C-alpha cells in the first residue's frame, strides 16, 4: 500500500479499512432497504438493522482468521450486533455484489477528490499561462534551440492537455461508478433487477446493464489507464520544468523556501525535487496499467485473480495521483520564472533561430526551396563551428544581399513575427 509520505489524509481515509467496511455495510443496508420496498423484509426488521448494525475492524479481522473469507467474516461480525433480524443480512446476494458495488461507491468518493484536483491544476495553469502569455522564450526541438515561442504558450499547451484529461476522466469515472446486485452468476436468480436499481439509486451509482458475478473489468482497466494518462501528463510538464531549471538554462526554478536544503554535501544546490518526485510516482502509476489490463481476463463468470491486484492498484493509483496533482499544482503556483533569462537565451545561437525566416524570404524572391536552403545552411555551419554572428554573415554574403535588403533581414530577425498568432491560439485553447 502507499506509504504515508505520498498520501493525503482525505484520500487515505477513503481506502482505510474502516471506510471500506462501512461501504460494505452501506451496500448491505441498501439491499435490505430494497427488499423492504419490495415487500420482503418487514419494516421493524429493517429499522433494527439500520439502527443497530455495526462492526469493529479488529473483530472482522479476527473473524477472518477463522473463516478465511473476508466477506463472510464481515457479515458474521455484523450479525453479532443484531437480533433475529440478522437473517436478512446478505439476503439473496453474493460476496461480489457487495464488494464490487462498494468499489463503485468508494471510487465515486475518490473521484470527487480527483475531479477537484484536476480543476485546481487547470485553474493555476490557466492563470500562469495568461500571466506569461507574451513572455518570449526559445522553443526547443530535440533539446536544441529552434524558434521563438512564449512561456505562456508552453503553459497553454499544458492547459489544453489538462482539459482532455478532464474529459477522459469523466468518461472513465462514470464507468467505474457502477454497481451490480445480480447474484452468483449475474442472472438475478435470488434477487431482482428492481432491487439492484434501488440499491444503485440510493448509493448514487449506475446499475451495470449486464454482469457476471463481477462487474466487467474493462471498466476498471480504462479507469486505471486514464489515471495513468493524467500521471504521464504531469510527468511531461514536470520534465519541462526540470530541463528549464538546469544551470545552463535556468529560465525557471521551483520555489526554494527559506531554510530549505538542496544537498547534504553541496550548500549551493537548488534541485527540482518536486518535479522529480512526481516523475517517479508517475512511473509507478503507469506500471499499474499492465496489471489492470491483465485483470480483464477472468475465468468464465468469475475468478478472484483480479482481487488481490485491485486491493493494491485501485487505492494506490488514486492516492498517488491525488498526491501528484496536489503537489504539482503547488509547484506551478509558486514557480519562479526568469523572463530576462528567457529573452537572453534567444541570442545563445548568435541568430541561428531565424534561419527559416531568411530561407523563406529568399524563396519569395524566386529561388527554389533547395537553392535557398543551400545558401543558408553553409552560413549556419560557420556559426556553429566558429561562433560567428549569423546576421553579419548574411550581411556579407552576396547571394543574400543581392536578393534581400537590410529591412528584409531586420524583419527576418524580429522575434515578434513568431508571436503574432498568440492571441488566436489562446482563444482556441479557451484562455481568452
Q: How can the largest sheet be summarized?
A: 2 strands, antiparallel
Overall average residue pLDDT: 97
What is the C-level CATH assignment of the largest domain? Mainly Alpha
The residue fraction in helices comes out at: 55-70%
The number of helical elements comes to: 18
Class by alpha and beta content: mainly alpha
Taken as a percent bin, the fraction of beta residues is under 5%
Number of domains: 2
Order of helices and strands: HHHHHHEEHEHEHEHHEHHHHHHH
Question: What is the assigned CATH homologous superfamily of the largest domain?
Answer: Fumarase/aspartase (Central domain)
Using DSSP, what is the number of strands? Answer: 6
Could you please describe the fold and organization of this structure?
The chain has 432 residues and is mainly α. It has two domains: 93-252 and 268-342, Fumarase C, Chain A, domain 2; 349-429, Orthogonal Bundle (Ribonucleotide Reductase Protein R1, domain 1), CATH 1.10.40.30. The chain has 18 helices and six strands. It has helices at residues 9-14, 17-37, 43-52, 57-67, 70-79, 95-131, 151-176, 193-203, 218-244, 273-294, 305-333, 339-344, 355-364, 369-386, 390-395, 398-401, 406-412, 422-429; strands spanning 136-141, 144-150, 178-179, 206-207, 252-253, 336-337. It has a two-stranded antiparallel ribbon with strand order 1-2. A two-stranded parallel ribbon has the order 3-4. It is elongated, with a radius of gyration of 30 Å. The two termini are 43 Å apart.
